[in-house]
Structure to design on (405 residues):
């Protein structure tokens, strides 16, 4: 399975890939605290990395301080996951826009599908942004920085319609995997169906694109690289990115 | 309901889906439909086993009558189109049911399992809908909802 330019799980750095809940919660809390510690350049607090925190009023130009709101570790985890989800959706919408700009996708059915999927990702981004705000955080309204960098090379080297669809397939695989892998880490029960319901739509996208790439054949084990659905019957979450990566 | 009881309910619905697939297989003839149905029924069996493990002492051995009744066709199956239409509806109801039950689950293993089965039920729906030449907007809604879900007590459509 391709995954939009992100190396397979086994080749990734330590920040990518699903891992046990306890370790994740510890790292997420650390990431949330790090994000709340300022980190902005030129003395300006980087609010994009301020998860559930409010920058304190300060006249300093070199060492902005940040106060952490009364927020439980669970809230911080939820915000980290939601903001990562937003970043993936904005990234996905952007990739589809870039793919449309290549002029490679000329088959009417697939261009219509990709336009619809781009709209879905924009809508999903808005949903996650809204959920982040309701949870007390600042929405992450940009494309995921790491994923955007990784996909650039593939976008530049795409030469055929199949190349373009393969890139989209990778984007959808990563999105579906990440939402499937981390829905169970959310502490607000109301967010679980929301994230899983959106992940299910990404999985539907994946099937449409996989069918285009290879038809409905190849449903058996190990049949091809871009299957329309997993032969095991269970969503493959190995292409998930770790919450916090690319924010 | 405990997570184990929810898992048992979902196991029963999966087993009922297996039974409906076996029923529909009698009218499927095209290679794509037959291959898809064979693959998907294996998935549902795997899902039932996984939910059964989570259900522990609440696990069921056969599909509950109420689940079977809820997924039965309302008219005799006489063509492949009839069979695919039935199976497409079954997948939609399974997806809606699992999505609805997510809000009741509390344990990580239970949620994690549904988070990996629900998307695949949706993917089954896309394949079956493609075989039925359904329009794209029907194959891929903006997000998964609960319409058509089965509910545990009484086990009926909503």
């Amino acid at each position: 399975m391709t995954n939009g330019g992100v190396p397979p799980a086994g080749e990734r750095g330590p920040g990518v890939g699903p891992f046990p809940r306890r370790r994740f919660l510890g790292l997420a809390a650390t990431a949330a605290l790090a994000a709340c510690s300022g980190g902005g350049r030129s003395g300006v607090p980087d609010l994009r990395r301020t998860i559930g925190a409010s920058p304190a009023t300060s006249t300093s130009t070199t060492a902005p301080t940040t106060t952490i709101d009364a927020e439980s570790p669970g809230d911080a985890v939820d915000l980290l996951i939601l903001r990562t989800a937003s970043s993936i959706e904005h990234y996905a919408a952007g990739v589809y826009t870039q793919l449309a700009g290549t002029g490679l996708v000329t088959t009417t059915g697939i261009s219509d599908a990709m336009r619809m999927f781009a709209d879905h990702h924009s809508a999903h981004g808005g949903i996650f942004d809204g959920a982040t705000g309701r949870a007390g955080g600042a929405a992450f309204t940009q494309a995921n920085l790491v994923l955007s960098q990784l996909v650039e090379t593939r976008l530049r080297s795409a030469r055929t319609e199949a190349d373009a669809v393969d890139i989209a397939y990778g984007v959808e695989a990563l999105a579906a995997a990440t939402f499937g892998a981390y829905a169970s880490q959310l502490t607000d029960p109301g967010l679980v169906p929301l994230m899983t319901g959106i992940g299910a739509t990404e999985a539907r996208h994946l099937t449409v694109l996989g069918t285009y790439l290879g038809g409905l054949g190849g449903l058996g084990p190990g049949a091809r690289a871009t299957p329309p659905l997993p032969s095991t019957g269970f969503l493959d979450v190995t292409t998930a990115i770790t919450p916090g990566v690319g924010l | 309901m405990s997570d184990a009881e929810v898992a048992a309910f979902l196991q029963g619905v999966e087993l009922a889906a297996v039974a409906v697939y076996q029923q529909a297989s009698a009218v499927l003839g095209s290679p794509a439909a037959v291959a898809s149905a064979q693959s998907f029924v294996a998935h549902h069996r795997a899902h039932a086993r996984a939910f059964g493990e989570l259900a522990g002492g609440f696990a069921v051995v056969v599909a509950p009558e109420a689940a079977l009744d809820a997924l039965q066709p309302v008219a005799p199956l006489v063509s492949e189109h009839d069979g695919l239409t039935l199976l497409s509806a079954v997948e939609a109801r399974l997806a809606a049911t699992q999505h609805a039950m997510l809000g009741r689950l509390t344990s990580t293993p239970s949620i994690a399992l549904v988070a990996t089965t629900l998307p695949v039920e949706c993917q089954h729906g896309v394949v079956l809908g493609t075989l039925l030449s359904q329009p794209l907007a029907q194959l891929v809604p903006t997000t998964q909802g609960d319409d058509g879900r089965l509910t545990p007590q009484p086990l009926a459509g909503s």
